[in-house]
Amino acid sequence: MPLDTAGEPLEALLPRIEGAAPAAGIAAYRAWLAANPASPQRFAAWFNLGVLMMQSGVRPAAIVAYRQALALKPDLYQAAVNLGVALELDGRAEEALALWQGALQPDEARIALLNHRGRVLESLKRYEEAERALHASLLLRADQPDVVQHWSHLRQKGCIWPLQGGGLPGLDAEGLLLRGGPLGALALTDDPALQRRIGEAWIARKVPAAPERLAPARGYAHDRIRIGYLSSDFCRHAMGFLIVELLERHDRSRFEVFGYCSTRDDGSDLRRRILGALDHHVPIGALGEEEAARRIRADEIDILVDLNGLTQGVRLGALRWKPAPVQATYLGYVGPVPLPELDWMICDAVTVPPEHAQHYAPRPLPLDGLYQANDGRAPVLPALTRATEGVPGDALLLCCFNNFYKITPPVFGAWMEILRRVPHAALWLTEDNATGIANLRRHAAEAGIAADRLHFASRCDPAHYMARLGLADVFLDTYPYNAGTVASDALRMGLPIVTLAGRSFASRMAASLLTAVGLTEGIATTLEDYVARAVALVEPARLAAARGALAGGEAWLRSIGDTDAFARRMERAYERILLRP
């Protein structure tokens, strides 16, 4: 926005600019600057010229204009903010960070600069620096829910413990949780009622209600049921790997499948396979929320299935228009999605037992068996050895390839206890980020565990990652946010799992998968039980029996990987919730 100065605002000097196209405004400001070489308001003219240049897409000229504004008024923090954003967009993130670090500003203005520093540092995975910047911002003003959310999640991703630090002025522990964001909440608490409250607070801040409902309340009368899948992850993403064969196996004599896609084309084989499995691929990434909703309504979708939930890329604004008479959420977010326009949350009786159903919104829709879709096609895997992967060949190899934000202090403490009780064991984790690795090594040292017993696997392609799972002996799950896709992959590779089942959907995912393959001995209900089961499982006879029960992945193929049977169960659920006039 153009700047109003403490003196005479430029809008008063140049009234033609108000509401004018950027090109006209640029010409007017340039003329004003040429005609007023000694005016004390020149800094404001340069700033406003920079704004209009950015709006016009002329970034190099905008950078020059903002620099001129700062040269005339070094404490104009708004120019420093905008100049840094322009530099960042120009691929010069380090220059932006240095600029914001050295910008002159009054105390109340430091918040914007600190928040931008935190945002860019987070994007660069410099989590420790990002956390410090956001913490400094929150010490100036704690009531910034979005900043609290990022600060809290940074501490999770960087394994910066305790997770709530020393707290924030004016916010108690529950207040921090309520502002911590829905994704982080899944790894902070296994209380589904609290997760629901966190989701409600986030939606209230982020997603206003729509002015009308688009779909007819009683549904349509189509010969085939029209299923619409709404996603930003029709690509080489965990959700894409899980959903693709379900899309392929829908019974086309009874169902017509639409894909409403906000996904950037990653050029992958998986994306091509997903799009090939749709009867109708409908790109909506360039559409606004109302436009997307009206596009869905025009297709007369019977059941719209949101595959994002409360994750990045979600189109909750479109869902609020109620473009389909029945709307469900599935797979992308394993917790309450308390959007009033959603009718169902697809789950199973293990992930959401009947006694916990009251805490969820929308209403749970349990399938007749495992909730999780999977791709039963056999992957082509590379030949790997422990030597090629840099892990000890003679150790009992315990692994967890979950993201670091799922690793909590109690679970890590349990892992350290297992390593103490099993001296020949090593722990293999994902090389998620440098901050987290350094902190996990430090936490291990504090627990008396030697650094060489922790190993970190670099990021790699999906086939390489699957082959790595086959090199380990046991998968140790996280809590309260279990492995989902990774747990299924582990079982497919014949890898036994020890998990801790709590009260929430997220804390019962691995238990659902273990139940499906008939290996419930790996399901613990307390941390002490978790440690005991892991220590017992690694005894040679028990470990051989568990691996034998999985039969090198055959048990997975007969149960979790039977996608044709899964498709029929999902279709029966759709038929139960279908509305007809």
Describe the structure.
The protein is α/β, with parallel strands linked by helices and 581 residues long. It folds into 3 domains: 10-180, Serine Threonine Protein Phosphatase 5, Tetratricopeptide repeat (Alpha Horseshoe); 225-376 and 565-577, Rossmann fold; 386-561, Rossmann fold (3-Layer(aba) Sandwich), CATH 3.40.50. It is 46% helix and 10% strand. It has 26 helices and 13 strands. The strands form 2 sheets. A 7-stranded parallel sheet has the order 3-2-1-4-5-6-7, covered by helices on one side. A 6-stranded parallel sheet has the order 10-9-8-11-12-13, with helices on both faces. Residues 1-20 have low confidence and may be disordered.
Output the keywords.
Serine Threonine Protein Phosphatase 5, Tetratricopeptide repeat; Rossmann fold; 13 strands; alpha/beta; six-stranded parallel sheet; 26 helices; 3 domains
Radius of gyration: 27 Å
In the CATH hierarchy, the architecture of the largest domain is 3-Layer(aba) Sandwich
- The total beta strand count reads 13
- Describe the sheet with the most strands: 7 strands, parallel
Layout: helices, strands, pairs:
Blueprint: H1 10-13, H2 22-35, H3 42-55, H4 59-72, H5 77-89, H6 93-102, H7 110-123, H8 127-140, H9 145-157, H10 173-178, H11 182-186, H12 192-206, E1 225-231, H13 238-249, E2 255-261, H14 269-277, E3 280-283, H15 289-298, E4 303-306, H16 316-319, E5 326-329, E6 344-347, E7 363-366, H17 386-389, E8 396-400, H18 409-421, E9 425-430, H19 434-446, E10 454-457, H20 462-469, E11 474-476, H21 485-492, E12 497-500, H22 509-517, E13 523-524, H23 527-537, H24 540-550, H25 554-558, H26 563-577
Helix pairs in contact: 2-3, 3-4, 3-5, 4-5, 5-6, 5-7, 6-7, 7-8, 8-9, 13-14, 13-26, 18-23
